[in-house]
Write a structure and sequence with these properties.
single chain, 440 residues, alpha/beta, eight-stranded parallel barrel, 16 helices, 48% helix, globular
Amino acid sequence: MYFNNIEKIKFEGVNSKNPLAFKYYDADRIIAGKKMSEHLKFAMSYWHTMCADGTDMFGRGTINKSFGGKTAIEIYEHKVYAAFELMEKLGMQYFCFHDRDIAPEGATLKETNENLERIVPIIKSEMKRTGIKLLWGTANCFNHPRYMCGAGTAPSADVFAYAAAQIKKAIEITVELGGQGYVFWGGREGYDTILNTDMAKEQDNMAYLMRMAVDYGRSIGFTGDFYIEPKPKEPTKHQYDFDVSTVLAFLRKYDLDKDFKMNIEANHATLAGHTFQHELRVARDNGVFGSIDANQGDMLLGWDTDQFPTDLYSTTMCMYEVLKQGGFTNGGLNFDAKARRASNTYEDVFLSYIAGMDAFAYGLIVADKIISDGVMDKFVENRYSSYTEGIGKKIADKQTSLAELEQYTLTNGEPTAESGKQEYLEALVNQYIISAGREL
């Protein structure tokens, strides 16, 4: 036992004063025909939760994540047992990992793979014991100095080859553990100056690496989803995977759009100058909605702070899009989030997860109410109703011409400018958020 002072986290309701209890996340509550746990599919991020120790660019770690281990491999063995104890106590169903989160990197690729082969059976055993599943896996092709100029987009063929070998092993582990997805998280796939960059070659190479990964994954029995995680300027000044629209154009150019969906992160959306909901909507409208990294950023800071989500407006509009999508298929809500540097106890880790899980549970409740009432849908339907008859229907059916539209305008004169009622709709969302709290 690694968290002896913390009991299994229970749902106690909105009136509970117990900080180590859920106020809104009631796993078995039925919302829109399914259990809350089935809608939300919460996943633990192995990297932040089991590895991140509060280190930042200005200071050393503030929390010990060795979990009593002494040697490098022993520490990673202990992390496995601590991870599953934490997930059991939080009632979480899934986890996500990078290959370098679950086992230490050795002096050679062979040694590193041997370390993985020692740890993976322990994870597999704990998965069998608990019933907890792997949401998705990925390879950390950004941390090691060899990847200082990228992995799939590296100017060095040797680095490209090393990344390919690492990704091959990560896919094999994902398949062995029954993962429902595999993510390309392009941490350094971009450039800092175009003066030394062949963009066309780098993107051609990245697409080829992804094609090889898909083909290999399918050849060894992977039936889940492949994802790309859009992000801007992290850490390079210009990321090739800037946002959903940019990634979609890349996928279509290289005929990969049938093979990949999006893993969308809230903090990356805002860093790209979008709302979280915008990125989800673009993915949904284009049939590439896949999975979500659930976090939030600090709007006053220009980097990816990976905070636990507590903004109820954001979680509500996220779950609005998820419900409109029909829910997750292979994806889920992975908490790509970490407790703040000054929140340096194991209890703080639990409190952080409780805050995030409650925020999304509340958002689910509100989003379901908005959709059930149909007020938003009706407003949008009415706003575009001119396309259901007359000249509007001819436009929608693509059965008109510029000449006909010119004649229509000459005959009918100046159009009426109708209000979009933005303030009313934003206030209405607030009303739903507030009233949900009163009803609980």
